[in-house]
Write a structure and sequence with these properties.
Elements lengths: L2 E5 L3 E2 L5 E8 L8 E8 L6 E7 L2 E4 L7 E6 L4 E6 L8 E9 L5 E4 L3 E5 L2
Parallel strand pairs: 2-11
Antiparallel strand pairs: 1-3, 3-8, 4-5, 4-9, 5-6, 7-8, 9-10, 9-11
């Protein structure tokens, strides 16, 4: 079974860059079965898909594309998120997830990590 674990700072200052890493175990991020994705949920709001990486290609939400970068480290079986120029509105629980290429639904979720943007 695939397991995902997010890691990174829990507090980021406004205008800085939020950086998170997802470590994957039980499966390879080079597999063709999943889009390796980042999804967030601000307090009191719904889930928001941010973007994904698949076979080295990246896909981003149009609303976040200008501030988002997703990359992967195949040697460590990790993929990462960078969100630049953050504001308090970027405060959210950030999840990494594997999204099925065929089903387009989330197959495995990380536990999530709360990132607060505050000075």
């Amino acid at each position: 079974q695939v397991q995902l674990q997010e890691s990174g700072p829990g507090l980021v200052k406004p205008s800085q860059t939020l950086s998170l890493t997802c470590t994957v175990s039980g499966g390879s991020i080079t597999t063709s079965y999943y889009y390796w994705s980042w999804i967030r949920q601000p307090p009191g709001k719904g889930l928001e898909w941010m973007g994904a990486i698949y076979s080295g290609s990246t896909y981003y939400s149009p609303s976040l594309k200008s501030r988002t970068s997703i990359s992967r480290d195949t040697s460590n079986n990790q993929f990462s998120l960078q969100l630049s120029s953050v504001t308090p509105e970027d405060t959210a629980v950030y999840y990494c997830a594997s999204v099925g290429v065929v089903t387009r639904g989330v197959i495995y979720w990380g536990k999530g990590t709360l990132v607060t943007v505050s000075s």
